[in-house]
Design a protein that fits this description.
Elements: E1 8-23, E2 37-52, E3 55-66, E4 80-90, E5 96-102, E6 124-130
Antiparallel strand pairs: 1-2, 2-3, 3-4, 4-5, 5-6
Length: about 130
C-alpha cells in the first residue's frame, strides 16, 4: 500500500477600512440653505478560506455602517452581509469551476469590476469556469 501526499490550507484575514468624507455639495453645488456634511463610513470584513488539492471554499462577511448612525441598543441592524461565499473545484492544474457569491472582474476592472473602492463593493451569484 502507498499513500499519496495531500495538503490542506486554512486562511483567516481581517479588513478594517474607515473613510471620512466632507460633502460640500453632492453631484451638484451646495445651496445657500444647506450645511456641509462630515461623516465617517467604515467597512469591516472577516475572510476565511480553506483549500485542498481538489476543492476550496471562501467566506467573506462584511459590515458596512456610518459612525453614529446606528443606535447602541439595536437588536438587528441588517448591515452584516456575505460579500463572498463560494466553493471551487480544481478539475486540473489549469481548470477551475467556481460556484456561489463572488467578485467578477474583467479586463483589470475596466469592463466589469468589484468596485472595491466603494464601501459595500460588488459581488454576484454565479457559476464560472476559470483558467
Amino acid at each position: 500500500m502507498s499513500a499519496g501526499a495531500s495538503y490542506a490550507q486554512f486562511s483567516l484575514e481581517g479588513q478594517l477600512r474607515p473613510r471620512t468624507e466632507l460633502r460640500n455639495g453632492f453631484k451638484k453645488p451646495i445651496t445657500p440653505s444647506q450645511e456641509p456634511a462630515v461623516f465617517t463610513e467604515q467597512r469591516t470584513r472577516l475572510i476565511a478560506g480553506y483549500k485542498t488539492e481538489k476543492y476550496g471554499f471562501k467566506l467573506s462577511l462584511q459590515d458596512v455602517r456610518i459612525w453614529g448612525e446606528t443606535g447602541q441598543i439595536n437588536k438587528s441592524d441588517q448591515l452584516l452581509s456575505a460579500h463572498e461565499a463560494y466553493g471551487e473545484y480544481y478539475a486540473s492544474a489549469k481548470s477551475t469551476f467556481r460556484i456561489g457569491r463572488q467578485e467578477v472582474i474583467y479586463d483589470g476592472h475596466r469592463l466589469f469590476g468589484s468596485l472595491d473602492w466603494a464601501a459595500q463593493a460588488r459581488s454576484l451569484d454565479a457559476l464560472r469556469y476559470l483558467r
